[in-house]
């Protein structure tokens, strides 16, 4: 018989079920309460009932657990000092979308050697998210593979759909079933349409193919996620955080029948021309807009790590420098700490 399928498949390796990994690393009642409370607070910040500023901040990706812990401990010590005006949520990013190819994150390749031990990746991601929550720090992550959420979403307070997948029906359907506030990035071309369509689609009930907690292929029916919003990250035509861009975003949201005041600005990516050291300047520009009366910039995203910049990858693991990103460049910890304090001071104008 002529074989007509799986011609390009090398191996299909079954994974533990989501239920098995959840039982192995349970959230526990205390952390589940913390996640639920944080999501509620995020909803109130994003949609206008809470005057705190949302700051999603942390490494572009987690590749070294010890450095990730070190970063999380520093952020957890800083967060309470500014908590009256800023809600800090740590970027705990395990899935990296690539423009062409490259390391796809700790879930896909936890040993950083191309062995793609996804089982260990999922297990490690769950355990690390729990550690961050244990520090009292809310968690943020990008959700990329549509099966991943079953393994980790209960430990995630805020999620992003990235610029490369905002236009994907698969991701919009997945978002419609997710339980946390979720930001859709604008497309890599810098236009808003895909993100606005995504918010509309994700707010509606959807039915799609997924897996249940026992790992069985399932038809998943959703209610729609009412807590989706836009994230401005710039695009190929340049940044999109100026007052004019923000005003245009407000009117595009209003025209689509969406709340015009739930905008998060990513200071990194094309808003800083991929030069991480420019992020504080972008942030200062946002603070100037807020001081001038802007009421729609509800928060910002910053890529920050222990050390500045990024390092080439792949390279031998032993040669990697501690605390330096292996994906996008970041600002270092001293810059981060000073910037967070500066944001806190500047936000006094909002009362
Ligand atoms: O935030 C991370 C990157 O910008 C994104 O994953 C794309 O990376 P790449 O263009 O290096 O593949
Ligand atoms: C991949 C990311 O961003 P974007 O989708 O905006 O490129 C990210 O925030 O890690």
From TrEMBL:
InterPro entries, A to Z: Aldolase_TIM, DAHP1/KDSA, DAHP_synth_1
Domain DAHP synthetase I/KDSA: 44-339
Pfam families (UniProt xref): DAHP_synth_1
GO cellular component: cytoplasm
Single Gene Ontology BP annotation: amino acid biosynthetic process
GO molecular function, one term: 3-deoxy-7-phosphoheptulonate synthase activity
Highest taxon, organism lineage: Bacteria
Coiled coil (residue ranges): none
Transmembrane segments: none
Protein role: Stereospecific condensation of phosphoenolpyruvate (PEP) and D-erythrose-4-phosphate (E4P) giving rise to 3-deoxy-D-arabino-heptulosonate-7-phosphate (DAHP).
UniProt similarity note: Belongs to the class-I DAHP synthase family.
Protein name: Phospho-2-dehydro-3-deoxyheptonate aldolase
